[in-house]
Design brief:
The structure is a single chain. The chain is of the alpha+beta class. The protein has five helices and five strands; from the N terminus they run βαβααβααββ. The longest helix is centred in the first third of the chain and has 17 residues.
Length: 136
């Protein structure tokens, strides 16, 4: 359970738009579009909320765990996985541009080994926190 230091709002329309923009780029590159995986969506939203509530920004949580530890705990199986995180104070859809303009984050979004994604965009503590969780 997460603390509730800040009230939050899930930005589902931003999540949908980010998926659309990402899949447009994948199609242009001749890649299959990613499909939404509801488990990964819940993990991505939890990760974004965790970073807001505990006031940190890192792939490793303050307790030393990573999101893949959560996948193991719930019995989610995969052979490859990746994570993108970003935040800003202006626009939740701008998170996509931040990822797209970063070579490492773009590589995750365009990785042909990934077939599924969960996107979690949360507004809280005066910022938009975005997480993308990828798997196959």
């Amino acid at each position: 359970n997460l603390p509730t230091n800040y009230s939050i709002n899930i930005q589902s329309s931003a999540e949908d738009k980010i998926l659309q923009l990402m899949n447009e780029k994948r199609k242009e590159a001749g890649l299959q579009p990613l499909t939404i995986d509801n488990t990964l969506v819940q993990v991505a939203r939890y990760k974004s909320d965790n970073m807001i509530q505990n006031n940190f920004f890192d792939h490793t949580n303050p307790d030393g765990t990573k999101w893949t530890n959560w996948l193991h705990t719930i019995g989610y199986t995969y052979t490859t996985a990746g994570e993108n995180i970003a935040y800003n104070t202006s626009d939740p859809v701008e998170l996509f541009n931040q990822w797209w303009n970063s070579p490492g984050h773009r590589a995750n979004m365009m990785n042909e080994k990934y077939t599924k994604v969960g996107i979690g965009v949360i507004y809280g503590n005066n910022k938009y926190m975005g997480t993308q969780e990828f798997s196959n």
